[in-house]
Amino acid sequence: MPAFFLIVITLVAFYLGYRFYSRYLAEKIYRLDPNFVTPAHELRDGVDFVPTHKHVLLGHHFTSVAGAAPIVGPAIAVYWGWLPALTWVILGTIFAAGVHDFGSIVVSARNRGQNIGTLSGKVISARASTLFLLIIFFLLTLVNAVFGVVMAILFMKNPGAVIPALIVIPIAIFIGQWAYRLGRSIIIPSIIGLLLLYIAIPIGQAYPLYVDGIADAVGLSVRTTWIILIFAYTWIASRLPVWMLLQPRDYINGQQLLVALFVIFLGVLVGWDTVTAPAVNHNIAEGSPNWFPYLFITVACGAISGFHSLVASGTTSKQLDKEPEARFVGYGGALGEGALALAAILACTAGLGAAGDWNSAYADFGAASGGALGNFVNGTGHFLSNLGIPAALGSTFAAVVVITFAGTTMDTGVRLQRYILEEISELAGIKALSGRVNLLTTLAVLVPLALALVPGGDSAGGKGFAFGRLWTLFGTTNQLTAGLALSVIGVWLLARNRNPLAALIPLVFLLFMTTWALILNLEDFFAKGDWLLLVMDAAIFVLAAWLVVEAFTAFNRVRHDNARQAQTAQR
């Protein structure tokens, strides 16, 4: 099948979803009010609460939630065939991610920008708030650890990407000063910044940077050195006001993603590449997991992601200028995430060459996960070669896209982790951490850093603990977080006598798939004697069971309250 057909089918489906379903959500379910005073105006402080133009905010939100996850997940999931992966990306984006991301912004904005964990205590129960704090802490730790390893591996394998990834930082800082200090438009400077980034790509390829000398001097491996440097940068970046680095860099990255998607899709059209992977892979290697239910925790951010609710309620809602713009930012951002997942699927099913090349890259599930990022980078390089761009330069371009996105996600993730740690310390009565921003940020960095440095995996997506095992834990925890966010949205809607089915249907589906996968993992880890993963998986399973009980109790309570109110009104 020509790969371009998949692009047309997916983008048409996304257009229809935004045109009709998101409008239904905005008008009938969330009932957006243009006169509502958002937290960005009510609590404006110039640091976290900052009214932001919707296009700039979409850039921040989109690039913060994107990262490497919507690339790695689908790049692994095509092991089961492109049809199951793409079907879940389309349906999950339109009917699950759109509802989840959009609703998280709205509910948070309606509650003075409080994060979804705090809101669970108000909407569901105090126990649910504790549950959410535990899940969020675990998820953010995994997100930051996973993306730290991803960036380190890409820097090691693509040293030509170092200079472009570094140069975007001073460019973003200049744009931030230009826009917020001088009050100038951000559009032209950001376009110039994007051009400078692209100019830096061939420069970086000509002058690759290595940290081997530093690693040898301090007696560490190259991988460990990169991880430490990345987390050191993240500590600094997460302490800066959002307008200084995070927002302008996100805007550049947002434009970069649009360019990346355009050139990938154009390369597919010009080259008229054919999908060489099977629609459904019937040659599943012995020992590899079945797509049902693992597909739905592997794709993760390519369809629906609980991490999005943390960004939506943690930073995006605090920058929302007008409430109706939540549709453009939340639902639009989910569609952008789905488009990136589509690009990853194409790169790994049509960009690897002949069917034999695909069969070699996806011989078994271990090979699929081990080569996920490399398959995307190489496939993208092939698409760009269709446009006359050298494949090596195109691969560096793809690596820069993933690295800059992952860096943005880590910046946001550490910032959010700082908020969560402060809430946990207040809940536990640890006064020594109250208001200690530097100390909280240090803790938010050290915990995932320690996890990222656990030995055992030197290849992104490999079988070692450093990535492959982290990804499995990330997927299940991520979907569990999405389920809890959807339960908050559903109870919030039901309490206002609005139809909660838009949130309840994906909620039930996610909890079923996540719980099933957790049980299968428990059996597998026990059989293999993998006690560390067994304990972690068991802890997540307990949280999942706890979530089901709390959500059911909350829905039942609100339903009875509504019934009593209706009876009182009739009297």
UniProtKB/TrEMBL annotation:
Q: Chief subcellular site?
A: membrane
Which domain of life does this protein belong to?
Answer: Bacteria
Topology term for the membrane: Multi-pass membrane protein
| Sequence intervals crossing the membrane | 6-21, 62-82, 88-109, 130-155, 161-180, 187-206, 226-246, 258-279, 291-316, 328-352, 387-408, 437-456, 476-494, 501-519, 531-555
UniProt keyword terms in alphabetical order: Cell membrane, Membrane, Transmembrane, Transmembrane helix
Keyword Transmembrane assigned to the entry: answer is yes
Enumerate the InterPro entries for this protein. Answer: CstA, CstA_N
Instruction: Give the subcellular location.
Output: Cell membrane
UniProt keyword annotation of Membrane present: yes
**Pfam families to which the protein is assigned, alphabetical:** CstA
Which ranges carry the CstA N-terminal domain? 3-349, 369-517
Record family assignment = Belongs to the peptide transporter carbon starvation (CstA) (TC 2.A.114) family.
Protein name, UniProt field: Carbon starvation protein A
